[in-house]
Amino acid sequence: MNIAVIGTGYVGLVSGVCYAELGNHVICVDKEKDKIRVLQEGGIPIYEPGLKQLADHNRELGRLQFTFDTLEAVRQSDVVIIAVGTPPGPRGEADLQYIEAAAREIGDAMNGYKVVVVKSTVPVGTNEKVQQIVRSRTDQVFDIASVPEFLREGSAVRDTLYPDRIVIGAESPQAVELLKQLHQSLTPEIIVTDIRSAEMIKYASNAFLATKISFINEIANICEKVGADVTEVATGMGLDHRIGPHFLQAGIGYGGSCFPKDTKALIQIAGNADYDFKLLKSVVEVNRQQRFGIIDKLIATIGPMQRMEGKKVGVWGLAFKPDTDDVREAPALDIVQTLIEHGAIPKVYDPVAMDNFRSVLDHPSIHWCRSALEAAEEAEAICLLTEWKEFKQTDFKAVEQVMLRPLLIDGRNIFGPQHFKDTQFLYYSVGRPAFGQGHGAMQTLMG
Ligand code: UDX
């Protein structure tokens, strides 16, 4: 099939490369000329494991091209996929200006039957709007379909090539047939729904996963108060098939480009329909507060925030999760900002997200470190905010040597007691008893 993908952000680029890998001829389009130039020259503007190799392979086979000429790309295609951004507007609602602009251009380029697929996450009813815009600009016959994307950053290629399910929201048999053909080699789990339900499936899935995270985080907070261990609790809960083991990892909460945006957008969608989505509002609020649990633990151990003045605090991990350089809505942003506000000196290190973090939050008191060990030097505490693999392999005997006080506050629960048994470390995590040498501090925390 000939496919045009409009928008080369995460979803568009990964989808485009993966559709090419399935044997289709794909043209990816973007308005940002610099981005397209990078792609044309063989670069990949995002950090995503495996994506470059797959893109190179398909480029060599002549199945993958990049252009900023939307009209030409659409003219050459049977399927046109809209994968542009839907950033949050002032009240959390999805801003549809890029979707609408893409629809206008598609309408102007129509030269025969095409299926227009919306992959961007859009409020219920948006596909119909796209249909109206395209129809207002052409007499050609076309169909519209919603095929939401469920890929995760860091495992985007795998998630796209081996999805749990494909959702096709389409009402024309011709479009359904074409899209089934396009996706049939990926999974037998293809569900066909009406367009509005497909749009809702995406929001409902993300909102449910966010709810699971905020739920386990609140359980973790209670575990801390009653002396239980949330990792044991999550294991015990997850063995019930109705609950399942995934997304029950307690920590400092979710970030990224999807959960924060989509939860707020769904609250807004519900509100527009006169429905107060109370549960999801709480999920968002719990997530906002959860990241500050790290600061509470610092206060419990080092002392009140006014005593932070001039103190160095190592910050391990800035990306919102491992295997990505994405810092959008990352808990690290709020945590580092709070440290700065209290006069502390954050010594930050991330294996790949340093530049992105600096472009959002740059401040003279931040020390930009080249290694985890450097970030620990002369620090009063280390806050671990992203569960990068390299942190799991830390030699804590070496780290202990360079710190002023061997204190680790682990926002992602990646270690067990055995890691610290030959050290002086005091270790705090989320929803689990503290362990290590400083039992006095542990008492403080347990209240
Ligand atoms: C998410 C959805 O998983 C994906 O289906 C959708 O298409 C886009 O949004 P992504 O944001 O890339 O993907 O990352 P994901 O792995 O889902 O993690 C999201 C956030 O939740 C991260 O900040 C992660 O640290 C956090 N998380 C995840 C937890 O805190 N606990 C968990 O158990 C799982």
TrEMBL record:
EC number: 1.1.1.22
EC main group: oxidoreductase
Domain UDP-glucose/GDP-mannose dehydrogenase C-terminal as annotated: residue spans: 314-417
SUPFAM superfamilies named among the record's database cross-references: 6-phosphogluconate dehydrogenase C-terminal domain-like, NAD(P)-binding Rossmann-fold domains, UDP-glucose/GDP-mannose dehydrogenase C-terminal domain
Catalytic reaction(s) noted: UDP-alpha-D-glucose + 2 NAD(+) + H2O = UDP-alpha-D-glucuronate + 2 NADH + 3 H(+)
Family statement: Belongs to the UDP-glucose/GDP-mannose dehydrogenase family.
Any one GO MF annotation of this record: oxidoreductase activity
The entry's keywords: NAD, Oxidoreductase
PANTHER family registered for this protein in UniProt: UDP-GLUCOSE 6-DEHYDROGENASE TUAD
Pathway the protein takes part in: Nucleotide-sugar biosynthesis; UDP-alpha-D-glucuronate biosynthesis; UDP-alpha-D-glucuronate from UDP-alpha-D-glucose: step 1/1
InterPro entries on file: 6-PGluconate_DH-like_C_sf, NAD(P)-bd_dom_sf, UDP-Glc/GDP-Man, UDP-Glc/GDP-Man_DH_C, UDP-Glc/GDP-Man_DH_C_sf, UDP-Glc/GDP-Man_DH_dimer, UDP-Glc/GDP-Man_DH_N, UDPglc_DH_bac
Stored SMART domains: UDPG_MGDP_dh_C
Annotated protein name in UniProt: UDP-glucose 6-dehydrogenase
